Amino acid sequence: MRAPQRGGFVLGVIVGLLVGLSLALGVALYITKAPVPFVNKVPQRTPEQDQAEQARNRNWDPNAPLAGKLPRLPAAAGAASAAAGASGPAAAASAARGAATAAASAAASGARAGKDPAAILSGAATPAPRGAEPFVFFVQAGAYTRADEAEQQRARLAMLGHSAKVTEREQNGRVVYRVRLGPYETRGDAEGLQGKLQGSAIESQLVRVERP
After folding, report:
1. E strand or H helix at 184, and its extent?
2. Is this structure's pTM higher than 0.90?
3. For residue range 98-118, what is the model confidence (pLDDT) as tens digits?
Protein backbone atom coordinates (compact mmCIF):
# COMPACT_ATOMS: atom_id res chain seq x y z
CA MET A 1 0.00 0.00 0.00
CA ARG A 2 2.90 2.42 0.66
CA ALA A 3 4.47 2.08 -2.84
CA PRO A 4 1.47 3.52 -4.76
CA GLN A 5 1.21 6.47 -2.32
CA ARG A 6 4.91 7.27 -2.71
CA GLY A 7 4.66 7.09 -6.53
CA GLY A 8 1.61 9.37 -6.54
CA PHE A 9 3.39 11.93 -4.33
CA VAL A 10 6.42 12.08 -6.65
CA LEU A 11 4.17 12.42 -9.68
CA GLY A 12 2.26 15.26 -8.02
CA VAL A 13 5.52 17.08 -7.25
CA ILE A 14 6.66 16.75 -10.86
CA VAL A 15 3.31 17.97 -12.20
CA GLY A 16 3.38 20.92 -9.79
CA LEU A 17 6.89 21.91 -10.93
CA LEU A 18 5.83 21.74 -14.58
CA VAL A 19 2.76 23.88 -13.90
CA GLY A 20 4.88 26.41 -11.97
CA LEU A 21 7.44 26.63 -14.76
CA SER A 22 4.67 27.12 -17.32
CA LEU A 23 3.16 29.93 -15.28
CA ALA A 24 6.58 31.58 -14.80
CA LEU A 25 7.29 31.35 -18.53
CA GLY A 26 3.92 32.91 -19.36
CA VAL A 27 4.47 35.78 -16.93
CA ALA A 28 7.97 36.41 -18.37
CA LEU A 29 6.64 36.53 -21.93
CA TYR A 30 3.88 38.94 -20.91
CA ILE A 31 6.32 41.28 -19.16
CA THR A 32 8.74 41.37 -22.10
CA LYS A 33 5.95 42.30 -24.53
CA ALA A 34 4.35 44.94 -22.29
CA PRO A 35 5.88 48.48 -22.41
CA VAL A 36 7.97 49.50 -19.39
CA PRO A 37 6.47 52.55 -17.63
CA PHE A 38 8.39 55.91 -17.88
CA VAL A 39 10.89 54.43 -20.38
CA ASN A 40 9.18 54.26 -23.75
CA LYS A 41 7.66 57.70 -23.20
CA VAL A 42 11.07 59.34 -23.77
CA PRO A 43 11.63 59.94 -27.52
CA GLN A 44 14.72 58.24 -28.85
CA ARG A 45 17.13 60.16 -31.13
CA THR A 46 17.77 58.64 -34.51
CA PRO A 47 21.21 58.50 -36.18
CA GLU A 48 19.92 60.93 -38.83
CA GLN A 49 19.11 63.53 -36.14
CA ASP A 50 22.57 63.15 -34.60
CA GLN A 51 24.22 63.61 -38.00
CA ALA A 52 22.10 66.72 -38.73
CA GLU A 53 23.07 68.29 -35.40
CA GLN A 54 26.75 67.58 -36.00
CA ALA A 55 26.50 69.20 -39.45
CA ARG A 56 24.88 72.33 -37.96
CA ASN A 57 27.63 72.64 -35.36
CA ARG A 58 30.35 72.08 -37.96
CA ASN A 59 28.95 74.68 -40.40
CA TRP A 60 28.02 77.25 -37.73
CA ASP A 61 28.89 80.77 -38.90
CA PRO A 62 29.17 83.43 -36.17
CA ASN A 63 28.88 86.21 -38.74
CA ALA A 64 25.50 85.19 -40.12
CA PRO A 65 23.04 86.28 -37.38
CA LEU A 66 24.90 89.39 -36.23
CA ALA A 67 23.95 91.72 -39.07
CA GLY A 68 20.49 93.21 -38.79
CA LYS A 69 18.31 93.82 -41.80
CA LEU A 70 18.87 97.33 -43.04
CA PRO A 71 15.70 99.29 -43.74
CA ARG A 72 15.14 101.02 -47.00
CA LEU A 73 15.80 104.71 -47.07
CA PRO A 74 12.61 106.74 -46.54
CA ALA A 75 11.01 108.22 -49.61
CA ALA A 76 11.47 111.67 -48.08
CA ALA A 77 15.24 111.24 -48.19
CA GLY A 78 15.17 110.44 -51.90
CA ALA A 79 12.95 113.39 -52.60
CA ALA A 80 15.26 115.68 -50.66
CA SER A 81 18.27 114.45 -52.65
CA ALA A 82 16.45 115.03 -55.93
CA ALA A 83 15.50 118.54 -54.84
CA ALA A 84 19.08 119.29 -53.83
CA GLY A 85 20.28 118.32 -57.31
CA ALA A 86 17.77 120.51 -59.09
CA SER A 87 19.10 123.62 -60.81
CA GLY A 88 17.62 127.03 -61.34
CA PRO A 89 16.83 130.14 -59.25
CA ALA A 90 13.37 128.89 -58.29
CA ALA A 91 14.77 125.66 -56.83
CA ALA A 92 17.47 127.54 -54.93
CA ALA A 93 14.96 129.98 -53.49
CA SER A 94 12.63 127.16 -52.48
CA ALA A 95 15.49 125.30 -50.80
CA ALA A 96 16.53 128.44 -48.92
CA ARG A 97 12.98 129.04 -47.69
CA GLY A 98 12.71 125.42 -46.61
CA ALA A 99 16.01 125.57 -44.70
CA ALA A 100 14.97 128.80 -42.96
CA THR A 101 11.61 127.29 -41.99
CA ALA A 102 13.27 124.13 -40.66
CA ALA A 103 15.77 126.16 -38.62
CA ALA A 104 13.02 128.29 -37.14
CA SER A 105 10.96 125.22 -36.28
CA ALA A 106 13.96 123.57 -34.64
CA ALA A 107 14.69 126.67 -32.60
CA ALA A 108 11.07 126.94 -31.47
CA SER A 109 10.97 123.25 -30.54
CA GLY A 110 14.19 123.60 -28.61
CA ALA A 111 12.88 126.62 -26.74
CA ARG A 112 9.74 124.73 -25.77
CA ALA A 113 11.87 121.80 -24.58
CA GLY A 114 14.06 124.07 -22.47
CA LYS A 115 17.05 123.98 -24.84
CA ASP A 116 19.17 126.88 -26.04
CA PRO A 117 17.95 128.03 -29.51
CA ALA A 118 21.35 129.59 -30.23
CA ALA A 119 23.04 126.24 -29.67
CA ILE A 120 20.55 124.57 -32.00
CA LEU A 121 21.01 127.14 -34.79
CA SER A 122 24.81 127.00 -34.45
CA GLY A 123 24.77 123.29 -35.28
CA ALA A 124 25.85 122.03 -31.86
CA ALA A 125 25.43 118.32 -31.19
CA THR A 126 21.88 117.57 -30.05
CA PRO A 127 19.78 114.42 -29.79
CA ALA A 128 18.25 113.23 -33.04
CA PRO A 129 14.96 115.07 -33.75
CA ARG A 130 11.72 113.30 -34.35
CA GLY A 131 11.51 111.66 -37.74
CA ALA A 132 15.29 111.19 -38.01
CA GLU A 133 16.92 107.82 -38.59
CA PRO A 134 16.49 105.93 -35.26
CA PHE A 135 19.64 103.87 -35.86
CA VAL A 136 23.38 104.31 -36.07
CA PHE A 137 25.45 102.10 -38.32
CA PHE A 138 28.58 100.01 -37.83
CA VAL A 139 30.76 98.26 -40.37
CA GLN A 140 31.54 94.77 -39.10
CA ALA A 141 34.76 93.33 -40.51
CA GLY A 142 34.26 89.87 -39.05
CA ALA A 143 33.15 87.86 -36.02
CA TYR A 144 35.37 85.19 -34.53
CA THR A 145 35.18 82.52 -31.85
CA ARG A 146 38.76 83.24 -30.75
CA ALA A 147 39.99 86.54 -29.35
CA ASP A 148 43.42 86.32 -31.01
CA GLU A 149 41.83 86.04 -34.47
CA ALA A 150 39.75 89.15 -33.80
CA GLU A 151 42.85 91.05 -32.65
CA GLN A 152 44.68 90.03 -35.82
CA GLN A 153 41.84 91.44 -37.93
CA ARG A 154 41.85 94.66 -35.90
CA ALA A 155 45.61 94.99 -36.42
CA ARG A 156 45.18 94.45 -40.15
CA LEU A 157 42.62 97.25 -40.29
CA ALA A 158 44.93 99.51 -38.28
CA MET A 159 47.68 98.99 -40.86
CA LEU A 160 45.21 100.20 -43.50
CA GLY A 161 44.45 103.31 -41.45
CA HIS A 162 41.12 102.23 -39.97
CA SER A 163 40.38 102.22 -36.25
CA ALA A 164 38.29 99.25 -35.15
CA LYS A 165 37.11 97.87 -31.82
CA VAL A 166 36.69 94.29 -30.63
CA THR A 167 33.53 93.59 -28.64
CA GLU A 168 32.32 90.36 -27.03
CA ARG A 169 28.85 88.87 -27.24
CA GLU A 170 27.42 85.52 -26.20
CA GLN A 171 25.56 83.83 -29.01
CA ASN A 172 24.06 80.35 -28.98
CA GLY A 173 25.97 79.57 -25.81
CA ARG A 174 29.30 80.66 -27.32
CA VAL A 175 31.37 83.83 -26.94
CA VAL A 176 31.79 85.70 -30.23
CA TYR A 177 34.40 88.43 -30.76
CA ARG A 178 33.17 91.07 -33.22
CA VAL A 179 35.44 93.51 -35.08
CA ARG A 180 33.51 96.71 -35.81
CA LEU A 181 34.19 100.21 -37.11
CA GLY A 182 31.93 103.10 -36.24
CA PRO A 183 29.37 104.21 -35.27
CA TYR A 184 28.28 106.26 -38.30
CA GLU A 185 25.30 108.58 -38.27
CA THR A 186 24.11 107.71 -41.78
CA ARG A 187 23.98 104.58 -43.82
CA GLY A 188 25.77 106.34 -46.66
CA ASP A 189 28.87 106.97 -44.52
CA ALA A 190 28.93 103.32 -43.45
CA GLU A 191 28.53 102.11 -47.03
CA GLY A 192 31.39 104.38 -48.11
CA LEU A 193 33.72 102.72 -45.60
CA GLN A 194 32.43 99.30 -46.59
CA GLY A 195 33.40 100.06 -50.20
CA LYS A 196 36.91 100.99 -49.12
CA LEU A 197 37.27 97.74 -47.19
CA GLN A 198 36.05 95.74 -50.16
CA GLY A 199 38.69 97.50 -52.27
CA SER A 200 41.27 96.18 -49.78
CA ALA A 201 39.90 92.61 -50.09
CA ILE A 202 38.29 92.74 -46.64
CA GLU A 203 34.78 91.32 -46.42
CA SER A 204 32.42 93.34 -44.26
CA GLN A 205 28.75 93.94 -43.58
CA LEU A 206 26.59 96.74 -42.24
CA VAL A 207 25.06 96.45 -38.79
CA ARG A 208 22.43 98.84 -37.47
CA VAL A 209 22.00 99.59 -33.77
CA GLU A 210 19.27 101.64 -32.13
CA ARG A 211 20.32 105.01 -30.85
CA PRO A 212 20.78 105.17 -27.07
Report:
1. strand 174-184
2. no
3. 555 655 555 555 544 444 545
